[in-house]
Amino acid sequence: MNVNIDQSWKTYLNPEFEKPYFKDLMAFIEHEYKSHTCFPKTSDVFNAFNHCTFKDVKVVIIGQDPYHDVGQANGLCFSVSDGIKHPPSLVNIFKELEQDLGIPYPTSGNLMSWADQGVLLLNATLTVRAHDAGSHQKKGWEQFTDVVIKTISAEKTNVVFLLWGGFAKKKKKLIDTSKHIVLESGHPSPLSANRGYWFGNKHFSKTNYQLEQVEVSVIDWKLK
């Protein structure tokens, strides 16, 4: 599989691409895509990086795994392509957005306009076999995306990291909290949200407040 990733990231990540674990990962992914239906399509695997250059990163949202049903995954965590029914976690993200900022519930679940403004929508695992959640975990993707988080932490300042749920919160140890902002809450999945761990976190307004404090342009969370 070709690593079709924006040049701004290659500057920092090229050493990873030469490591044995990453070569093994690419061989595994290539075999999986030939042998099974997998998501997202190969041209979208690195979408998070191609819609948000390294220079532009202001906010990082960490997901776990791509959606595994047909037509859903588009390479950005929590995002679905235009015209696709919104999965339950995304529904709750949009409900919180409505409550927090008064933004009307959007028609499309495509979060590309967030990415284009500097929100890195990063899944820890970038691929999945159809209808088989977690099927590409522990094959090397997590090692790679941990390096991505560490690199952002080391090379940038004043990035807002949004850690939603237990899995994302474990990534806090990779972030230098003396120079970045970390906001934590429950996961937007119905299980967590309905227990009161998600709604009311106001992460969208809080993110923009933090960006304003360091004189960085805020995110327009309203989907185009």
Automatic annotation (TrEMBL):
Uracil-DNA glycosylase-like domain segment(s): 50-211
Active-site feature positions: 65
InterPro entries from the UniProt entry: UDG_fam1, Ura-DNA_Glyclase_AS, Uracil-DNA_glycosylase-like, Uracil-DNA_glycosylase-like_sf
Gene Ontology MF terms in the entry: uracil DNA N-glycosylase activity
Coiled coil: none
GO terms under biological process: base-excision repair, AP site formation via deaminated base removal
Pfam families in the record: UDG
Function noted in UniProt: Excises uracil residues from the DNA which can arise as a result of misincorporation of dUMP residues by DNA polymerase or due to deamination of cytosine.
UniProt-recorded name of the protein: Uracil-DNA glycosylase
